[in-house]
Write a structure and sequence with these properties.
The protein contains one helix and twelve strands; from the N terminus they run αββββββββββββ. By secondary structure, the protein is an alpha+beta fold. The strands form three sheets. It has a six-stranded mixed sheet, with no helix packed on it. A four-stranded antiparallel sheet has the order 5-4-10-11, with no helix packed on it. Strands 3-8 form a two-stranded antiparallel ribbon.
Amino acid sequence: MRGAVVSIQVAILLAVILAIAIAVANYLYTTFYASLQFTYIAVTQAYAYPRDGGTEVKLCFAVGGSGGLKIVGVELNGHEASEVKVVVRGREAPEIKAGDVGYVKAFFPGITLTPGQMAVGRVVTLQGFSFFFTPQISNAEGGCPGE
């Protein structure tokens, strides 16, 4: 009888260890898979400068992760841009993908900024992500790397 009790205890212990191992493996797999599906925009430089009747913002960006994103809006100090143009490798792009480098131009009518002011903005994507930036305010448009 004593041997049967020990065998049952060993079987229960092995079942518990196996269940924990499967749970940990599942957690690691889903975490790794989710990290491969994440796409982000790194705003490398941001400029704000006057343009007829308002302010234009130029954002230099690089896209990382995997997959693609669609930029649907740009905000500056809580105001939404009236027009947004995304340029990748010299052409307008409806969607940006991992590895892309380019810039976004957004126009804000009626907003006037002067050098020395602090402005805060964000890029909004169709997928629901927001990426914040603080532009350098000047009187002329700045350049992006590789432009």
